[in-house]
Input
Amino acid sequence: MLSPQEILQKTLDSGVAKSLKSLGSLFILGILAGVYIAFASEGSNMAAFNLLAHPSTFGLGKCLAGAIFPGGLMLVVLAGGELFTGNTMMLLPLTAGKIKLTALIRNWVIVYFGNFIGSLFIAVLIVYSGQLNSGNNLLGGITIKIAATKCHLTFIEAFSLGILCNWLVCLAVWMATGAENAIGKIFAIFFPIWLFITSGFEHSVANMYYISAGLLAKSNPDWLNAVTVSSELLDSLTWTQFFFANLLPVSLGNIIGGGIFVAMAYGFAYKKELTAHSD
Output
């Protein structure tokens, strides 16, 4: 396991390398990362939907979903992918003067769009695969309810949950960067991601699947009637609410949680060591 100072240097170097990747490479790797996180999202829903449907077992359902979801980030880290939430740590090389703001924005925009395309692609496949008929249509109903609940958050709630989420996600990436073998990376990823899903925090890329799937599923009356969802919640489940009431504040929170509270915090803490290494 690398020391925190060594992880910091690797994170800095990785951010510089990410800023130099071609548009095509970033876009393809962004799509793949979106697909991998969507696989984790749909798989965690499948595992836990019966438990999530009842208040008395809701916490157990979140815990089970959390045990499934880390596979998504493992795929991104071990198989390769460009994930917006992890790339928020590119604030480190930006503030260290190693990359320009235009390079940072270019990376984020391309990767974010690629993540969305990948997530939406899996959402479409899941909806048309018939998988949401599982449990006598209950999986479809829970998919709609999860999406509607996310769209009904206030701006400050979504923003705060976004900070908390990516603080843990980027700590998972941070520790995986320091692990020197695959098993170490897997364990470094598993526990923080399990914690973030169990806690119910908000991940912008995961929501690209969760909410897209719910919006697509909403038109199926069998799935819509499988669970009780208030009209107020259902009215919140629109593409406009998705983009402006969830993705926007959650993404901003993710940037702060990962970029500031992980990358920049360690950058400040170990500034002298980083400067000495750079020299």
Q: What stands out?
A: The mean pLDDT is 97.
